[in-house]
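cron nightly-structures :: item 1 of 1
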Amino acid sequence: MLGKLFLPLEGGDQKGEGFMPPKKSRMVFLCQHCGHDSPKWLGKCPDCGEWNSFVEEEIRETTGGTGRTSFSFQEAPQPIDAIAADERDRVRTGLGEMDRVLGGGLVAGSAILVGGDPGIGKSTLLLQLLQHLAVQGMKVLYISGEESARQIKLRGKRVGADSPNLLILVEIDLDSMIRHIEAIKPQAVVIDSIQTVCSQALASAPGSVGQVRECSERLIILAKKTGIPVFLVGHVTKDGAIAGPKVLEHMVDTVLYFEGDGGHAFRIIRGIKNRFGPTNEIGVFEMRGDGLKEVTNPSAFFLAERPKQAAGSVVVPSMEGTRPILIEIQSLVIPTNLGMPRRTAIGVDGSRVSLLVAVLDKICGLHLSSHDIFINVAGGVKVSEPAIDLGIVSSLASSFLDRPVDPATAVCGEVGLAGEIRGISRADIRIREAARMGFSRCILPRLSQSDPPPEKVKNMTIIPVRTLRELLEHLF
C-alpha cells in the first residue's frame, strides 16, 4: 500500500529506504512580537500583551522527525581541560570602541545580533568594521537583502570601504547564502538584515516569526560549525525592542543596541548581552559625513558645551560597563501656573525623579510640590544607575535656590527614602576620571568602617557625606 502512495527517491529500494516522508502542514496564529502560537486568532497576546499582533502562518511537518537539516556537530564528549581556548585568539576589529563592547575582539564562531532604529547607522558601522578587517588581509562577506550592490558601493565610497577582500552579495534566499559562505569561507559575515532572509522550507513571508527563527537558527549553527563570526542586523519595534521572537536574543551570543538621537551627532553601541565579555559596556561614535568616527574621550565630548556658573548644572561620574563617563545633569525648577505641576525627565527615569523630589521636600524642607520640574541629561545620554541620584538632587536644589554649584565639583551617590546617602561601586575609577578631566572636588557617600577607603588622587579633595543635609551644606 505504501509503495503505491509514495515514489522512491533516486538510489532507494522498495523496502522503504529513501522514501520521501509524507509532508503535513497545519495553520497556526503566531504573535509577531514574541512568537507565542495559538490555534485560533486572539486580539491580545497573552504573553507580551500586544494587540492585533497575531498572523496566520503555515507550519510544515514531516512524520518521524522535524523535516529540517540535521544540526548535529558529530563530536564526542571531551574533558574540559583538554579543550584548547585562549583569550588571545580574539580578532581585533580595528575599531577600539567596538572591541571594547565585544569584550576585546571577535570570538571565532560567535553570533552577534545588532539592533537599532532605522537610519541610526547600523549598516554603516558594520560596513566600516568589515573594511577594517579586510585591510588586515581577511576575506569578509557583506550580505544585504535591503540594498542593491550599487547602493552599497555608493555608501562604501563615502566611508572609504574599497578593499578587494570585502565581498558584497545581494541575496535573501537562505540556502543560497549558506552555499556562498561555505564556498568562500570568509573570516566574518554580516547579514543585513535577518528580517529579509527567507527559507524555502517555510511558506510564510520573510520577516515573520517562523522565518526569523528558522533562518537565525541555521545561520547560528553554521557559525558554530565553521568558526565564522556572523553579524545579524535586526529591525526594532516602535518600543525599541528587536523585532521578531524573543528567543532570537537567547540564541545569539551577543546582543548590541545601536542608540542615538537624530538631533545629536553621537551614537552609542551598548552591549545588552555578551557571553564573552562584560554586559552594559558602551562604545561611543560620532556621525560625520564620511561615516562613524570613534570618540575615545566621551567625558570631554559630553562636557564640551557645559555652561560655567549656571544654576541647575551638576556633573556626575557615571559608570557604563567598565568605563567611567562624566555626564552633565541639568534641572529647571520654576513656580507653576497650573493646578498640577509638570514633571519632565529626559535621559533619566521619571519615577526616580519624582521619588527624589519627594525626599527633598520631606527631608530638606525644599517645597517643590508647587513647582514645575524639568530634568535633562545633556547630550541626549540615557543613564539608569542609582549613583546618579546625588547628581539629580544637587541639580534640583541648585535650580530651586538659584545658586550654582562649584564647576570644579563632581557628585555621585545613591539616595534613600530617609535622606541617607548610600555607597556606590567603583568609586576609585570615578574619582580618577573626574581628576583627569580637571575636577578638584568630589562628593561621595561616607563609607562604613568595613569598606576600603578610596585611593588618594593628586589634586583631588574627597568630601564624604552621610545625609542630604550634609550634601547641601557642602554644595552651598
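cron nightly-structures :: done
The chain has a mean pLDDT of 85.
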